[in-house]
Amino acid sequence: MDGSHARAGALLATVGIALCVAGPVMVLRGRSGRKEIRTELAAQKITFPERGLPAELATHAGRRVETGPEAHAYAELIKGNLAHATGGRTYAEISTECNATGGEDEKLSELRQTAFMGQSLRASLMSAYQAWHLTTLVTGLGAALTGLGAALVATADALTFRSPNRS
Asked: What percentage of the chain carries pLDDT values higher than 90?
């Protein structure tokens, strides 16, 4: 094996070992992140109503929100309830209306508070849903990096094994 093959083999082995170390760390971080999301969602004790859910959410009736997809489903429930309560208006639109009345309209002020709370809760649940997706990505990338690292180490070993000058 000439010097360039030896250097290439050493580089492949080094990168492979680094990936074999980094990959499992990513997998563990992804799994611990997902566990933390589950713990935080469970601590909120959010439960879907037993009855009155839209057809697309009926499978969630009576279930607790403990996963990212469940957080997304509950956020959609809030979205529907908010649209009904506000006539489809957002917090910003209601605030503009409220400000136009000089903030004197009590009913509009209460509606603005309802919109604010609902949109804030929905945003929190959507953040949990996005974090859930990130943990999936981190775990998947960690597994892929581990596999790639193992392949690079095997390739480096095969290059070294073929060397006629190997002792």
From this structure: 81
Mean pLDDT in residue range 121-136: 97
Q: Is the pLDDT of residue 110 over 60?
A: yes
| Residue, of 28 and 105, whose pLDDT is higher | 28
Per-position b or e across 59-73, b if 16+ CB within 10 A of its CB: ebeeeebbbbebbbb
Distance from the Cα of residue 86 to its chain's centroid: 29
| Other C-beta atoms lying within 10 Å of the C-beta of residue 162 | 11
User: What whole-number distance in Å separates Cα of residue 159 and Cα of residue 13?
Assistant: 10
pLDDT at 104 over 90: no
Give the closest residue to 10 by CA, choosing from 165, 159, 164, 166: 159
Residue type, 99: N
Burial of 98 (0-12, 13-18, 19+ CB in 10 A): buried
Q: For the chain, how many residues are written?
A: 167
C-alpha closest to that of 79 among 118, 129, 53: 118
Please state the pTM of the whole predicted model: 0.82
